[in-house]
Design goal:
By secondary structure, the protein is of the alpha+beta class. The chain is built from 19 helices and 35 strands. The chain folds into 4 domains: 168 residues, P-loop containing nucleotide triphosphate hydrolases (Rossmann fold); 81 residues, Elongation Factor Tu (Ef-tu), domain 3 (Beta Barrel), CATH 2.40.30.10; 99 residues, Translation factors (Elongation Factor Tu (Ef-tu), domain 3, Beta Barrel), CATH 2.40.30; 118 residues, Orthogonal Bundle (Arc Repressor Mutant, subunit A), CATH 1.10.10. It is 34% helix and 29% strand. It is found in: Cytoplasm.
Length: 626
């Protein structure tokens, strides 16, 4: 069973005990800043590991509850899989609790647990009244059917029960897509002395591995993931649902900020005009007017812009979905289906939220015709829905496409006739763009490998497939390798794959030393020393020895007699020709020693090499030329 990764969030009103509860669950104090300690409120996002087993890993985000820190709260909640709503027993549901509930609903988070904290502060009779009040307040929200756990973080009452409830809930929950394009909305940027720039965030989708080439969008800065950490522990890979810190090369802290997005694919759009479907909060205090300034929170970005309606000029109470457009002052990185929150900049309040219909919106006329077009776009054309499904899964059969898109077989078959779709195996379909992505990934990996190991023929195909299996189906990678071989982009030599432009070679910096070794070996003819002595004398580093030997042996530049002795290829060939010229169809050891003047130490391994190379065949005490 593949390991599953989840991040849960603590949400709720200020001073209801989120940070204390997090510490009770994890034994980690997530208030790191001096100001947080002094004021006893959370300002920045706090993170801690909660639980890990062979099959599941769970992390916690403690989000600030104070209204002034709602921006950090949205940035934290946007990447989580389950919310623990914290309500203090001595206060019940408060204004920030309600606002957090609205935000969670707009962000599409439906999995939750209610933790009623500070139970030691109230008696049993009062606690029952509080529970009834909370039940009533949460009716009709995303938490109306959620389990309730009574806890006290200081005495640890109910903490084990809450932890087990979290694990149980997540074990039954769908995991995030680890095979889609990698995307990490950045919520923290800092530097580590001696290491450079580090970014941190909750991995939305896909996976990332150490050494991978990535892009910071919307800035377009190409970087490499030098090192990864998950909860302060080094990691070779990180997967959707995990909190991860990535040490980046080729970029300074000043070039990145919260809201930027780290990606591995070009499938994400950079845009300022977004077609959206939104819902408004139930009790708006002020009118929302046409082209009114808004603050859009999407991922970890916070961008100013204006809301544009096409069927009204203002609203205050609206329970249904509204199709409209956001025109933003700065570029964001998004794709269809992403969730966002809208807030009024002044006076500050959450006014609504929704999801992205089309990240590449255009300017439309006011009127019902535009609303009808947006409604059609909201449903998505068959080709768009198939494309979205394939971007996530990389490869799907027709049956799987029908299931994921809710289209019928005829609609799917007609749409798949488009040139952007590729039927690459008996059952599987993919996109031209995905094949290009795999091709580029293979090219980069092979190029890096050739630079690191110039003496080797290439990468073992099984190793290539294993390295990409977290992102792409094996059959798809094999298809791209075969297609690349047919178009002369790649080449196959046995089980090894390389770039067609690559030829194994001795690194120029070591060529003089390897040439000297070969010359010394040739000079000593048939009376050679241990090969290790030549290697030591030439000063060839241990890291290169095996690759150099393999390179020479494959090209018959040296011939092994045994593990210790090797002949120069030309010397060996001359010895074979001389022996053949001065013997009949068969000969014995004594005759060979007489002709070549070799001691038994060299003679026996030499003749055994002739047998192994099928130059001769041993018949009792004689050798017969083949």
């Amino acid at each position: 069973m593949e390991k599953r990764y989840f991040t849960i969030g603590m949400a709720g009103h200020i001073d209801h005990g989120k940070t204390t509860l997090t510490k009770a669950l994890t034994n980690v104090d997530t208030d790191r800043l001096k100001e947080e300690k002094e004021r006893q409120i959370s300002i920045e996002l706090g993170f801690a590991p909660l639980y890990e087993s062979e099959n599941i890993q769970i992390s916690v985000i403690d989000v600030p509850g104070h209204e002034r820190f709602i921006r950090q709260m949205i940035a934290g909640v946007a990447g989580i899989d389950l919310v623990v709503l914290v309500v203090a027993a001595d206060e019940g549901v408060m204004p920030q609790t309600k606002e957090h509930l609205e935000i969670l609903g707009f962000l599409g988070i439906h999995s939750g647990i209610v933790a009623i904290t500070k139970m030691d502060k109230v008696d049993e009779e009062f606690s029952e009244l509080v529970k009834d009040d909370i039940y009533e307040e949460l009716n009709g929200t995303v938490f109306e059917n959620s389990p309730y756990v009574l806890v006290d973080s200081l005495s640890h009452k109910g903490i084990d029960e809450l932890k087990l409830q979290i694990i149980k809930t997540l074990e039954q929950q769908d995991v995030r897509d680890t095979k889609g394009p990698f995307r990490l909305p950045i919520d923290q940027v800092f530097t580590v002395k001696g290491q450079g720039t580090v970014v941190r965030g909750t991995l939305y989708e896909g996976a990332v591995e150490e050494g991978q080439l990535l892009t910071i969008m919307p800035r377009g800065i190409e970087v490499r993931a030098r090192q990864l950490q998950v909860h302060h522990e080094p990691a070779k890979q990180a997967f959707a649902g995990q909190r991860v810190a990535i040490n980046l090369s080729n970029v300074s802290k000043e070039e990145i900020e919260r809201g930027d997005v780290l990606v591995s694919s070009e499938h994400f759009n950079i845009t300022r005009t977004v077609d959206v479907a939104i819902h408004m909060v139930e009790d708006l205090e002020y009118l929302v007017k046409q082209r009114m300034p808004i603050k859009c929170h999407i991922g970890t970005a916070e961008v100013m812009g204006r809301i544009v309606f096409f069927d009204r000029n203002e609203l205050k109470a609206e329970s249904g979905e509204i199709l409209c457009q956001l025109r933003l002052e700065e570029e964001i990185v998004t794709k269809r289906g992403d969730r966002f929150i809208l807030r009024r900049p002044s006076p500050q309040e959450t006014i609504g939220g929704g999801w992205v219909i089309d990240p590449k919106g255009e300017k439309y006329r006011f009127g019902h015709q535009t609303i009808e077009e947006l409604a059609k776009k909201k449903e998505g054309s068959p080709a768009e829905r198939l494309t979205a499904a394939l971007i996530e899964a990389k490869s799907l059969s027709i049956d799987e496409l029908i299931k994921r898109t809710s289209l019928d077989q005829e609609e799917v078959s007609l749409a798949l006739a488009g040139e952007e779709f590729i039927h690459y195996s008996s059952k599987e379909y993919t996109l031209q763009a995905i094949i290009k992505d795999v091709e580029e990934e293979l090219f980069d990996r092979l190029n890096d490998y050739h630079n690191q190991f110039p003496l080797r023929n290439g990468v073992n195909k099984a190793e290539l497939l294993q390295g990409l299996q977290k992102w792409y189906p094996k059959s798809l990678v094999e298809y791209v390798i075969e297609q690349g071989s047919a178009t002369n982009l790649f080449q196959r030599k046995g089980q090894f794959v390389s770039l067609s432009s690559f030829t194994p070679h001795v690194p120029p910096s070591w060529m003089k030393r390897t040439d000297n070794l070969l010359n010394d070996l040739k000079r000593d003819g048939l009376q050679v020393k241990y090969l290790q002595e030549y290697i030591k004398g030439a000063g060839i580093p241990d890291a290169l020895v095996e690759d150099v030997k393999r390179y020479w042996i494959e090209r018959e530049m040296i011939i092994s007699l045994d593990e210790s002795y090797y002949y120069h290829g030309e010397v060996f060939t001359e010895a074979v020709n001389r022996l053949k010229a001065e013997t009949n169809i068969e000969f014995d050891v004594g005759k060979a020693k007489e002709i070549l003047g070799l001691s038994r130490k060299y003679m026996i391994p030499f003749l055994e090499r002739l047998d192994e190379n099928q130059i001769t065949k041993r018949v009792e005490n004689m050798r017969v030329w083949l």
